[in-house]
Amino acid sequence: MEKKMEVTIMWEQLGQSAITSLGFFWKAGWAFVLGYLISSMIQAFIPQGKLAGYIGKYNVKSIGLATLFGAISSSCSFAALAAGKSLFKKGAHFIATLAFLFASTNLVIELGILIYIFLGWQFVVAEIIGGILLIIVVSVLARITMPKKWVQAARERTEDEQQEEFDWKKKIRTKEGWYQVGHEFVMNWQMVWKDITIGFTIAGIMATFVPESFWEGLFMAGTDGGFWVVLENALIAPLAAALTFIGSMGNIPISTILASSGVTFAGIMAFIYSDLIVPPIVMVNKKYYGWKLALYIAGIFYVSIVATALLIHGGFAALGILPESGRQIMNESPFQIDYTFWFNIVFALIALFALWLFRQFKKSGAHAGMMSMEGDSRFKTIVTWICIAFLAIGTLLHFVLML
Q1: Maximum distance among all alpha carbons in the chain?
Q2: Structure pTM?
Q3: At what angle do helices 175-209 and 378-402 cross, to 10 degrees?
């Protein structure tokens, strides 16, 4: 009898974890569509080809322009790497390329919306201020430690790619320009849907199966260690993020779990910042620039992430605005007739319209000359479909057990 009860509890937890993951999807659905629609319009109507000429030196202007353009670019890590490689080959300074990479994955609109939904306004402010601060730290450290021979070898290694040049004022008034918006929208989703699926599924599993005591032990939560606990959290969080093998968009719901388990502000921000040091990203950088420079980039990002997380934590603590626990988002049911429900309906219709634009783009034949993006690994594809199967089976179990 006791064994049967244990099995029943296990099935209930499996179903609950699937429903929790779907709740995360539901809560963030409209934000994804809004963010990627804006990103797609920017990518379609702002030419990239001329940018490299403006960021070819190590100075405030180059770093600033690289940061600005990265922030209005793509939140997909793999697309950012491809764009960064193209800019680097066309003459962008190596440090400006690093600034572009971080800004295009951590300072984008859609990420800010998602962080606000799941974690609150303090984390959005920290993401913006901390992101700029991190780029400054990276720039200074890279200036001091940059291996010039490795950089030169990497520049010779990269392959040039052609970028389309156009007048955005004319293009925005053409139907072909808007068809391309549909194309960019679909391409953006193709690049991130696996990360999002894996991240949200893992978040649901963690929320259900992993006890808070595990995270409290790993991150020394609840101990009176002061600065040493904050330091430990900042050091451990990037390594934990790297082990998830997913990007920042997928890591946001996992960050919610950490917040609800008492992980410090520094640890959560370091976790969010760490999408560019996960193994798949390092492997792509290895393909572009070689092993030495790829490991150098990962190393300098790690050091900069830890330093920035500590600085942002100290600054918020001094101002008395450290955020509270993230338990509220975990406890409330997302499936309600509220603003999320209506936003999801509206943006689902917008997504359908973007898909129609994509179909028109394909019919026009313009896709034949478009640059292809880097694909995901076979391993990530397999894990994604395992997650989808888990969600389907878990949801079915949940409703069966409710009967």
Answers
A1: 73
A2: 0.74
A3: 60
Place of tokens 């490991």: 295
pLDDT band at 86 (very low <50, low <70, confident <90, very high): confident
Query: Which pLDDT tens digit goes with each residue over 304-334?
Result: 999 999 999 999 999 988 886 544 445 556 6
The owner of tokens 């601060």 is 133
What residue has token string 């925005």? 172
Task: Give the CA distances from residue 193 to residues 130, 156, 282, 355, in Å, rounded to whole numbers and listed in that order.
Answer: 26, 33, 20, 15
Two tokens, residue 269? 């921000």
User: How many CB atoms lie under 10 A from the CB of residue 1?
Assistant: 5
CB 28 within 8 A of CB 39: no
**Burial of residue 392, with CB atoms counted within 10 A of its CB: 0-12 exposed, 13-18 middle, 19 or more buried:** exposed
Q: Which residues contact 41 (CB under 8 A, 6 or more apart)?
A: 181, 184
The DSSP code for 375 is P
DSSP 1: -
d(CA 81, CA 351): 26
**Residue 350 CB burial class (10 angstroms; 0-12, 13-18, ≥19):** middle
The pair of three-digit structure tokens given for residue 342, joined into one six-digit string: 């209506």
Structure token digits, residue 50: 């001329």
